[in-house]
Amino acid sequence: MAAQPDTVPLATFRAMRAEDLDEVSRVELLAYPFPWTWGIFRDCMNAGYECWVLVRAQAIVGYGVLSVAAGEAHILNLCIAPGAQGGGLGRRLLARLVDLARWHRAERVFLEVRPSNDKAIALYDSAGFNEIGRRPNYYPAKRGREDALVMAMELLGN
């Protein structure tokens, strides 16, 4: 039996543009019960943060937002559209954000994640992030608030 060619189009990275904000916001609404607003994404772009999209077949399937200052980087948002999850795109996007942090000469990268987000925690852990603390009552939740796990990766010597 002949092997079938890979028919899944390659996803490519590019900088987020103002005209992407409607589609990015749509993906955010599908992915999270407490999503960022369109205005938050716009403000991140206007602040000069590293805002990137992952595009496949002319559709945005993921995006990430990274801030860098004073030798530290902070992954503010990393999302893969629910229908595109499970194929390694989150790992590719995370690697791109870490590479951008290195390019900016950051010494470490931080992020927060919900303790209930087992898949994201497993991804971050496998990529070399370590839990360094908690932020109590950080995230809105259906029944009040949820803590955030604070994770970090050292980039010195990498």
Report on the structure:
The protein is an alpha+beta fold. It has a single domain, classed as Aminopeptidase (3-Layer(aba) Sandwich). A 7-stranded mixed beta sheet has the order 1-2-3-4-5-7-6, sandwiched between helices. 26% of the residues are buried. The N terminus is likely disordered.
Fold topology:
Layout: E1 12-15, H1 21-31, H2 38-46, E2 50-56, E3 59-69, E4 72-80, H3 89-103, E5 108-113, H4 118-126, E6 130-141, E7 144-154
Parallel strand pairs: 4-5
Antiparallel strand pairs: 1-2, 2-3, 3-4, 5-7, 6-7
Q: What brief labels describe this structure?
A:
disordered N terminus, globular, 158 residues, Aminopeptidase, seven-stranded mixed sheet, 4 helices, 7 strands, alpha+beta
Q: Order of strands side by side in the largest beta sheet?
A: 1-2-3-4-5-7-6
Radius of gyration: 16 Å
Strand count: 7
Under the CATH scheme, which architecture would be assigned? 3-Layer(aba) Sandwich
- CATH class membership: Alpha Beta
Number of helices: 4
CATH topology assignment: Aminopeptidase
Low-confidence stretches: 1-5
Alpha-carbon distance between the termini? 44 Å
SSE-based structural type: alpha+beta
Element order: H for helix, E for strand: EHHEEEHEHEE
- State the helicity in percent bands: 25-40%
In short, what is this structure?
The chain is α+β, with helices and mostly antiparallel strands.
